[in-house]
Design brief:
The complex is a heterodimer. Chain A is an alpha+beta fold. Chain A has helices at about 1-25, 65-95, 115-130, 135-195, 200-220, 275-310, 335-340, 360-365, 375-415, 420-450; strands at about 35-45, 55-60, 220-225, 230-235, 235-240, 245, 245-255, 255-260, 325, 330-335. Chain A folds into two domains: about 1-60 and about 415-450; about 70-400, no CATH class. Chain A has a four-stranded antiparallel beta sheet with strand order 3-4-5-6. The longest helix of chain A has about 60 residues, at about 135-195. In chain B, a hairpin with a 2-residue loop joins strand 1 and strand 2 (about 180). Chain B has a domain at about 60-275: f41 fragment of flagellin, N-terminal domain (Up-down Bundle). A two-stranded antiparallel ribbon of chain B has the order 1-2. In chain B, helix 1 (about 15-40) packs antiparallel against helix 7, helix 2 runs antiparallel to helix 3 (about 120-135) and helix 3 (about 120-135) packs antiparallel against helix 5. Chain B is mostly helical. Chain B has seven helices and two strands, in the order H-H-H-E-E-H-H-H-H. The chains are: A alpha+beta, B mainly alpha. The interface between A and B is large, with 96 and 76 residues.
């Protein structure tokens, strides 16, 4: 009879533990990184019938392969998303400049740099029509100033984009370092808990959550040691080994940015996570389009100044340059011409014989159609920005689906299914009631036995 | 840490389902936003990444359109010049024909023994000369002398009939790489020196001044000059002016053709631009409605997500 009591008691204990585990699962259904726990029951030895039941262990439905997949997919997505932000920023610097909604009959004004260029060239024809008038010349000067302002502003916006990227990258490095520190602490905690024969599941869950965040920032590689500590490698450089943590620092090498380990100063070959996307934007795309913009500015000033040098001012003197400075950031309009537009070399004839000559301006206007001119270079720039951005957009949506699927697969394998938990709960409840009933039956049997004595 | 029991079936946790639904909603929202932008702006391409090739094409078409609109303006301006030039040259011809009939009448008047008419004839030719001098200084709307070439901004001839201009007649660009002269220089119309119409410099009198001078002197020798060499020079000068009139007329016709061509090209460019740039409203609005329906369906499905679980029935 004692053994019957003991068996019923063990059953009650086991069911209570099961209910506690279910309760834990339901409570953590939305906790990031949480993996469903299940109790492994085991028969207790004892006597001929056996000694009842016990909870041998609490299993956690970790799935390392799916977790790694999900981490890698989300790291790749963060990489692309960060790049997408940079590219969208670059693209916004070069608006198409459509201002009016047009049916095919109405005229579209074009206010972007392309439109300004077209208007600039047209203004030279107006000078050719009235070489001795001052209004068309003033218009050329105004449009030239507008062009140089737009070029300067675009250049400043790109520089600002770069500066913002560096600030963001700096913030991310801070976050990466704090997360790496956490991994180190969790590693020590795992060792301690297991040393004290405790259950490290909760720590493992936290670890998964931290590693997930770290992957989104820097695309980590994780390997597990025999003592269940996580070793973290970023871009081929080991950063966390048990409780030993190296930091990451951002290095600015004359405008080319990289991450390296600190201490050690080993460059990280980072290729995933938002830091990788930002680095690509900062090191590759922003400089590329800054360069293309400079090329547009330099081509414009070389074309215009070159043609002006072949011409003569209203007074018949050799022509001087209209644009000054090199690169989009420094382009400007010559102060002498701003002060006196008659110095624009519209004439092709030296001396007084060219007093009413606008043929040099006429030649200038035809540069609008040049296949190698500033206009076509700017068109190439816009097409290039557009195709890279389009490409990144496509990749983001494709990778988004991949990351989402990987996350769903992980969730399905390790996440909490409430229906399942509640079904378990009902069966545990029934079992518990049955065990309790058993106790009353044993008790009643005991009573009748005692009364019989 | 224990790994998952391989015999356990894959279950779909609500979190996984929610993930998928949120992703679906985000995609729907993106599509919706893009369609809404298209409908509200009327542009199929709102940023270069919508269609990189199309965006570059659009800039190119816009630039060409601006260029061809400018060609139209250039042609209109050139046409104005040519009309003014043609008008002036035709007036010159009228005046010259009057002079011609005066000169031809001289011998008859002389035969009738009526020499007293000569001063008045000289007077008439002299006033014709000043009329032609005025016409030679015809200016366009903005004050540029149309027969001054590119050399003078205010005046083609001074009061003694000396040419002040220089260079060739101005041209206008009316098509890529095509320039048309919108006038002729003074010498091309009025000739130069003694064979020219306008010179009043003694020692090298122009045709008209020579006639005036011969009529004024009235000697038999000078009268026979009027009938002979003067009339010949006058006829030669008239031929030059007629030649000029036909050149200007031909150029005017050419510039009108180019203008029509530029207008046609601009129209074609505009149409091309429209096909690249403009959204097809009918299809965009239909798509927008379809997308809205899809989005609403997805929203509804999401709203059903969390309401159904076992807890409700326990």
């Amino acid at each position: 009879m004692d053994s019957a009591f003991a068996i019923a008691d063990s059953a009650l204990n086991a069911q209570q533990t099961e209910i506690a585990i279910t309760s834990e699962n339901v409570a953590n259904a939305q906790t990031p990184g949480y993996s469903t726990e299940t109790a492994n029951l085991k028969t207790l030895p004892g006597g001929e019938t056996g000694g009842g039941v016990e909870v041998a262990s609490i299993a956690q439905s970790q799935n390392l392969m799916l977790a790694t997949n999900a981490r890698q997919a989300s790291g790749a997505l963060s990489n692309l998303t960060a790049l997408q932000h940079v590219m969208t920023g670059i693209q916004n610097v070069f608006p198409l400049g459509q201002t009016t909604s047009s049916s095919s009959s109405s005229t579209t004004t074009n206010t972007g740099l392309a439109g300004q260029l077209a208007n600039f060239w047209s203004a030279w024809d107006a000078v050719a029509q009235d070489p001795s008038g001052s209004a068309p010349r003033t218009e050329v000067v105004n449009l030239a100033q507008g062009l140089s302002t737009t070029l300067q502003e675009s250049s400043v916006q790109l520089a600002q984009l770069s500066a913002n990227g560096v600030t963001e990258l700096g913030d991310q490095v801070t976050q990466i370092n704090s997360l790496l520190g956490e991994v180190g602490k969790l590693n020590s905690a795992v060792v301690q808990t297991e040393g004290a024969a405790g259950n490290p599941d909760a720590i493992e869950d936290q670890m998964q959550s931290v590693l997930g965040q770290l992957s989104q920032l820097a695309g980590v590689n994780v390997s597990y040691a025999a003592d269940h500590t996580a070793n973290v490698t970023v871009g081929g450089v080991s950063l966390v080994q048990e409780a030993n943590v190296s930091n990451v620092s951002l290095v600015d090498n004359a405008g080319s940015y990289s991450l390296e380990s600190n201490p050690g100063a080993v460059p990280l070959g980072i290729s995933s996570g938002s830091a990788a996307g930002l680095l690509a934007g900062l090191n590759q795309y922003i400089p590329q389009f800054q360069g293309d913009l400079n090329d547009v500015a330099d081509t414009l000033s070389a074309t215009v100044n070159g043609q002006l040098a072949a011409g003569f001012t209203a007074a018949g003197a050799p022509g001087g340059p209209l644009f000054t400075g090199t690169g989009a950031a420094n382009i400007g309009v010559a102060a002498a011409i701003v002060a006196d537009p008659s110095l624009i070399a519209a004439s092709s004839t030296a001396g007084a014989a060219g007093a009413n000559d606008g043929s040099n301006a006429q030649v200038m206007a035809e540069f609008a159609s040049s296949q190698t001119g500033a206009d076509s270079r700017y068109q190439n720039l816009v097409q290039s920005v557009g195709s890279i951005t389009e490409n990144v957009n496509t990749q983001v949506s494709a990778q988004g689906a991949v990351a989402n699927q990987a996350q769903s697969a992980l969730q399905s394998a390790t996440g909490v299914n409430l229906d399942q938990e509640l079904t378990h709960l009902m069966s545990f409840q029934a079992n518990y009631q049955a065990s309790a009933k058993l106790l009353t039956v044993i008790d009643a049997t005991m009573q009748s036995l005692l009364q019989a004595v | 840490m224990t790994s998952i029991d391989p015999s356990m079936p894959i279950t779909y946790s609500p979190a996984a389902v929610a993930n998928t639904m949120v992703e679906g909603l985000a995609t729907d929202q993106n599509n919706l936003a893009s369609l809404e932008q298209q409908v509200s702006t009327g542009f199929a391409i709102n940023s270069p990444s919508d269609n990189p090739e199309g965006a570059a094409n659009l800039l190119q078409l816009n630039a060409s359109l601006t260029r061809f609109t400018q060609y139209q303006t250039n042609a209109a301006d050139g046409k104005g010049w040519l009309e003014a030039g043609n008008g002036a040259v035709n007036s010159v011809l009228d005046v010259l024909h009057q002079v011609q009939s005066i000169v031809e009448s001289v011998s008859g008047a002389q035969l009738a023994g009526n020499g007293s008419e000569l001063p008045s004839l000289a007077e008439q030719v002299s006033s014709a000369l000043s009329e032609i001098s005025n016409l030679a200084n015809t200016t366009y709307e903005n004050g540029q002398p149309i027969f001054g070439g590119t050399g003078n901004a205010t005046q083609a001839y001074d009061s003694s009939g000396n040419y002040l201009g220089a260079g060739n007649a101005p041209t206008r660009t009316v098509a890529p790489g095509t320039q048309i002269a919108v006038s002729l220089t003074g010498p091309q119309v009025f000739g130069t020196g003694t064979s020219g119409l306008l010179s009043q410099t003694s020692g090298s009198l122009g045709v008209l001044s020579q006639i005036v001078s011969d009529l004024q002197s009235g000697t038999p020798a000078s009268i026979s000059n009027v009938e002979g060499s003067d009339l010949q020079s006058l006829n030669a000068a008239i031929q030059t002016v007629e030649g000029a009139a036909s050149t200007l007329g031909a150029n005017q016709q050419a510039i009108e053709q180019f203008s029509a061509q530029a207008t046609q090209t601009a129209g074609a460019l505009q149409q091309q631009l429209g096909s690249v740039q403009d959204v097809n409203m009918a299809s965009a609005i239909t798509n927008l409605q379809l997308q809205q329906t899809a989005y609403q369906a997805a929203l509804w499905a999401t709203s059903q997500l969390s309401t159904d679980d076992l807890a409700k029935y326990l």
